[in-house]
Every structure is written in structure tokens, then in C-alpha cells.
Amino acid sequence: MRRPLVVGNWKLNGSLAVNEARMQAIVGAEKDIHQIDIGLCLPYVYLFQAQQLLANTNIMWGSQNVSQFEQGAYTACVSADMVAEFGCQLAIVGHSERRHYSAENSAKAVIRIKRAVDAGITPIYCIGETQAEHAAGEAKKVLAAQLMALLDLDKISLEKIKSFGLVMAYEPVWAIGADQAATPELAQSMHAFIRDLLSKFDAEFAQKTRIIYGGSVTPENAKALFNMPDIDGGLVGRASLDAHAFSSICAAALNYQAPSN
Ligand code: PGA
After folding, report:
1. Is the pLDDT of residue 260 over 80?
2. What is the pTM of this model?
3. Residue 119: CB within 6 Å of ligand 1?
4. Does any domain span residue 9?
5. So which residues are the catalytic ones?
6. Residues with Cβ within 8 Å of residue 109, at least 6 apart in sequence
7. Residue 260 included in any domain
8. How much is the pLDDT for 1?
9. Does residue 176's CB lie within 6 angstroms of at least one atom of ligand 1?
10. HEC secondary structure over the chain
11. Stretch 36-55: mean pLDDT
12. What is the CATH number of the domain that holds 248?
């Protein structure tokens, strides 16, 4: 059985005061929820605040990236070991906004996945096609290339990632910050495709890996998405900035247990 996972990606939003109110509201709403995993990914500078406010609650916290470097002369980079010191259990890696605005690519993302796992942090590896790739019918080709970049890692690292675990996030770029999410049927077909790709690494790994959907998840569409057999939760941007909306999305994941096939 895969446990549903709902993660809020706050992106470049927040302030000490706003975060405190929002985290307290989410903690209050979720305090009796133990059937699903819930996480919040904040800007680096607020990870200390998250650690203060979320320790001893059922909400995990994480960063929105980690550096591919371990240490040294890399101005403005933040390592996986550093965020681990602030109790992060999660780190988003390869988000399309990083790929778009900061020229990140899958080759760097897979090294970041390795760094996160080495630091004891679960990476959330975001993959997804752009509008143009979608329109050209190339979505699956793009997803395969992004995911199979893991094979560029050395064997020992790959084995470590498989045994520690990672979370995959299917985030079609055209659905992020858009008016509409992917339909549940389309998202399901892509998630099933991703799971099939994961089975090329190992059948058990494919079955245990959570594949969450991101791109305009709302309280209105969450249930239909999460009810799909290969959609194990959500990566939520805008709606996670509203504690009430985020809690409704968590509730949509609550009664759902994905079949283990
Ligand atoms: P959105 O963002 O929910 O605002 O579309 C999702 C994401 O980018 O992770």
C-alpha cells in the first residue's frame, strides 16, 4: 500500500508573520490526521522557522531545491546536508520553474537526488512536458528522458536511491499556475506510464514509489485526481498558500488508499 502524500510548494511566497499564521492553521486542521503524509516546502530562509513550528506535529517540511554541489566556492548554493540540519525530510528537485528560470536540467537534477538521499532527505523529482511538447505528442518521450537520466548515476548511488526511496511528481508544465489541471484520465495515463518506466529499474521499486500530481490542484479537482489508481497525492502550489484550501486537498487524499496492484 502506498500512503497518500500531499505537499505544499510555497514557491517564492511568505514572510515570518504570514508563514506562522499559515503553518499554525494547517497544524490545527491536520492534527488528528495520521493516515496520509503531509509536507510543506518553503524557501530556504524559512526552514528554521518551519523546524520551530512543525517539530512534533504530523506535518513534514522541506526545501524547494538542493545544490548539486556538496561544499565549496558555489556562491548562493545551499547543500542537502545544510537543509538536513534544519530537519528537512523532503526536497523538491527538478521543478519546471527551476528548469525554466535557472537553466536546470535532468542531468543536474539526478545529482541533486543523490545529494538529498545521501543527506537522508526524500527527493521529490518533478518531471513534465511543456505545452509545445504536449501539443507535438512528445509528452511520454520527454518524461522518459527526464526519468531515465537517473541511469547516468553510478550503480551504487542508484541502488541507494532505490532502497531509500524517492517521490515522483508528474507536473505537466502547461497545467502549472494555469486555469485548469490535467484531467484525471490524462494524469492517470501519464502516472501509469511513469510507473511502467520505474519498473524498468525494479518491479518492487515501481510499486512502492509514490507518484504525485502537480499542476493547478484545487479543493474542487483533488478528489477525482487522487481517486485514480496511480495518483498517490499532490504537489500543490497556489492552493497551498491558503490553509483552508490546502486542508481540503489533504482531506481529498484521506480516504483514498491506492491499490498495491
Ligand atoms: P500550482 O503549482 O498548484 O500553482 O499549479 C504546482 C507546482 O508548481 O508545484
Report:
1. no
2. 0.96
3. no
4. yes
5. 95, 171
6. 93, 94, 125, 146, 149
7. no
8. 84
9. yes
10. CECCEEEEECCCCCCHHHHHHHHHHHHHHHCCCCCCEEEEEECHHHHHHHHHHHCCCCEEEEECCCCCCCCCCCCCCCCHHHHHCCCCCEEEECCHHHHHHCCCCHHHHHHHHHHHHHCCCEEEEEECCCHHHHHCCCHHHHHHHHHHHHHHCCHHHHHHHHHHCCEEEECCHHHCCCCCCCCHHHHHHHHHHHHHHHHCCCHHHHHHCEEEEECCCCCCCHHHHHCCCCCCEEEECHHHHCHHHHHHHHHHHHCCCECCC
11. 98
12. 3.20.20.70
Which ligand 1 atom sits nearest the alpha carbon of residue 235? 9
CA distance 124 to 200: 19
Would you say residue 259 lies in a domain?
no
pLDDT per residue as tens digits for the range 140-183: 999 999 999 999 999 999 999 999 999 999 999 999 999 899 99
Residue 261 lies in a domain: no
pLDDT digits (tens, 9 = 90+) for 101-132: 999 999 999 999 999 999 999 999 999 999 99
CA-nearest residue, atom 2 of ligand 1: 237
Ligand 1 pocket, 238 CB below 6 A?
Answer: yes
Q: Which domain holds residue 146?
A: 5-254
Atom of ligand 1 lying closest to residue 236 CA: 3
Mean pLDDT estimate for the chain: 96
Give the count of domains, the chain. 1
